Amino acid sequence: MNEQALVAKVWNYAHVLRDDGVSYGDYLGQISFLLFLKMDKERAEALGEASALPADANWDMLAGKAGESLEVTYRRILDTLSKRTDIVGTLFLKAENKIGDPAKLQRLVTLIGAETWMGLNVDVKGTIYEGLLERNAGEVKSGAGQYFTPRPLIDVITLLVDPEPDDTVHDPAVGTGGFLLAAYDHMKAKPRAQDKRVGRALRETMLSGTDIVAEVVRLCAMNLYLHGIGGATSPVQQRDALLDRGDTAFDVILTNPPFGKRQSFRIVREDGGIDSERQDYVRDDFTVTTGNKQLNFLQHIMSILKVGGSAAVVMPDNVLFEGGAGETLRKRLLEEFDFHTLLRLPTGIFYSQGVKANVLFFERRAPGTGIATRDMWVYDLRTNQRFTLRERPLKRADLDDFVAAYGTKHGRANRQESERFRRFGYDDLVKRDKLNLDLFWLKDASATDPDTLPPPAEIAAEIVDSLETALEKFRLVASKLGAAVV
Amino acid sequence: MAKRVTATGPVDGPWALPDGWRWERIDSVAPVNPRRASDNLADDVEVAFVPMAAVTAETGGIDVSTRRPIASVRKGFTRFGSGDVIFAKITPCMENGKAAVVPTLPHGVGFGSTEFHVLSPRDVSARFLYHWISQRGFRETAEFNMTGTAGQKRVPTDFMRDALIPVPPPEVQAAIVARIDELFAEVDDGEAALGRARADLATWRKALLKAAVTGELTADWRAANPSVETGADLLARILADRRARWEAEAKNKGKQYAPPVAANSASLPTLPSSWTWGTIDQLSTRVTKGSSPGWQGFEYQHDGILFVRSQNVGWGRLLLDERVYLDPGFNKIESKAIIRQGDVLLNIVGASIGRACVADGRLNDANSNQAVAGIRPVSTSLSDWITAWLVSPAGQAAVFENVVETARANLSLEQVRAIPIPLPPDNERAAVLALYGQSIDMQTAMVTEVSEQSSTATTLRQSILAAAFRGDLA
């Protein structure tokens, strides 16, 4: 079957199962398992490689079965493989059967079984998989604050940070692996990666990531696997990155940490009511103790970046202007890191309406060399720019001007100011009240030009967001005063 | 909570203080307007100069960047040093909370408005003192004790000297100041969020209106309610109705009907497929304006017929606070401009040009001047729609399209007739206005909410300070 038709078939079956109550996410999970089983068999047969799986938990056990027998076998295989500690274990992390109807399961097994996946272009598999991932992201509520980073943005960030094949690249909030994949493609294309050993290290050890959600880690591991990335152990692990700094520092960090406000968990009081306890991560290597998830990710990244290493981090606006802990952290960022570029992202590019975010580009300087940031360059891609996910999605062309302005990673001295690109010296920044880096200079035309007014739903979402922030802050203060909650 | 003791020591204060604290007169711990030794600086040395405007009310912000040669400010201005606290003494600056801690100054000395009291902290930290005197309660007492003639009332120096301040041990002062700053920062962030909400609420209103008149608001409605009749069908009916009314009028007997000017859809934005473009002319039987009463020899009176001027026409609503009336004889002369309920009024002259609203029952038999055009819709069921369109951002753009931007010249009646207006199917029009109305109600409720939360923020700051000085903020 030609590749287009295959993609269509996989998609259509997703819809069929969706009507049955199987979400895109669950569908993805099941496809991942079956694909891996099938590809393992193909590898063993066609390439004579040793199978990664035991004889009682491989594709052959499934093929030819039907009805309840098929379902029981499938579940047993998933259970067995989920207990492994190698890459297979990660690929089958917490694996469960989500397809209730055995007839549908059988059809899916047949669908997967009918193709030779090893022979398929890696891109096709990637397309199918990532297409489903995107759909899935569109469905998942922002409970964990995960926002699928638009592909053009990932590609541009990776291009500009420009990791080399010898760099270790890490994403502490890896999601489904978009940044790692982009980094891999970018590094693989460099001449140095032609060297067999460098190429192998690139595939197996240079890339790494963590995510707190098991299902997501599984999807990511599979995504990477389908692109040929990974060794004996999985490059991505399930873990709460904020718990501790781990043992490793990295050359390059590319990441879009989860958004969402304070990290807190609920506990049930004795009288049955619910309290929200703030979860503060207390670490020696942290500058501030705060429940603010974004600030915590930022200081975690600052902690695991090697001296001389580069980071590009997607962060919401409040990291740039929040007082107190935010101000303290920004001060340290400017002093110990060269925070050379700030990209103000436009609205309408993430799945949640009105999210206002930025990309922070910084490098770690050696200690004892004075204030690290001399100039911060700000590119405003937000004012008078409005995108939507369907009608007007962000394209690579929309970022061309930024790419040109950014220049090369070692050529920052040649940068030029322009309408949307301005330089701010450290001395000017440090004078700003609360070290507020929420910098804009362009006039918002929406006040006068009706065409640039955002859709009402987007504005309404921002209003609710602002009101919630305000209410939360006031409640926090009131509770500290022991006053009645407002 | 620290142990309470009745205030002992030098002074009795208004409430019991924790162990280790004591009440003092302000002058004992921070001399007020002290005499100073000579500054011993050369005449041309540039020093910081702080006029009243350089201090921000309520926040303690102070701008010390202005410099003057010391010789020009020694006499006639108040002197202070780095780390002093300055406090506005004159009304209304004092009540507004103009006070600040003076930061480190070049040469350690600065000068400023004579309307500042200067407090020179000795046994109390500057920031602690600043927070104490910035409290609303302190300012209220100070205001009560102001002396002087009206308009020149000031807080006397003696009041500041004798006023009391609770003084904890130094390390406790530092801790309290830190806690206050931390909590104030949270309140600041909350207020900043409210500010954003406030701005967004205004934008939301505009965006809602735009969405309403361009069909965006009812996109889902259209999907669920396929139209029986399109906007074009509706327009055809309206045109037929318009013609019929024209022909029915006795004065038009034997005359040739001039069809109304139509919209040039090709040059206009794309509408949903079931909508169509029309013009004010097509949707109305009459577009007129009144005239100045003076020309006709009339004067404003307190009763008679209501006379509408441009200040009575707001953005989508009547503003009838300022009313004038004319003798009913005016209506005999300007009979063509007599207003009826359901007419759409549009300002065509002056600063408020472009504002529009619907005339309600109070305006029956009213008249207007030449600054207000009256549009009589073919059917009053169209009045709200026409008004919503005219005041929307897109509508305003259409209204002023043919007018030179900078000059904002007056609109002629011909231009008003030619204003294009989008027309949805009949039933969708009602749906749009209903949806829009609901959203506006929500918006209004949120505006109130934001305003209430703003008050909460202000109260919170005072609560924080009160708790701090009771010793409850550990």
- The number of helical segments of chain B is 15
Helical/strand content category of chain A: alpha/beta
**Helical fraction of chain B:** 25-40%
Mean pLDDT of chain A: 85
- Count of distinct strands of chain A: 11
Gap from first CA to last CA of chain B = 8 Å
Mean pLDDT of chain B: 90
Strand content of chain B: 15-25%
Q: State the shape of chain B.
A: elongated
Rg of chain A (CA only): 24 Å
In which order are the strands of the major sheet of chain B placed? Answer: 5-4-9-6
- Overall body shape of chain A: globular
Report the structural category of chain B. alpha+beta
Order of helices and strands of chain A: HHHHHHHHEHHEHEEEEHEHHEEEHEHH
SS elements, strand count of chain B: 20
Total DSSP helices of chain A = 17
Measured distance between first and last alpha carbons of chain A: 64 Å
Strand order of the largest sheet of chain A: 3-2-1-4-7-9-8-10-11
Strand content of chain A: 5-15%
Which protein chains are joined by the largest interface, and how many residues does each one contribute? A-B, 33 and 44 residues
Q: What is the C-alpha radius of gyration of chain B, as a whole number of Å?
A: 33 Å
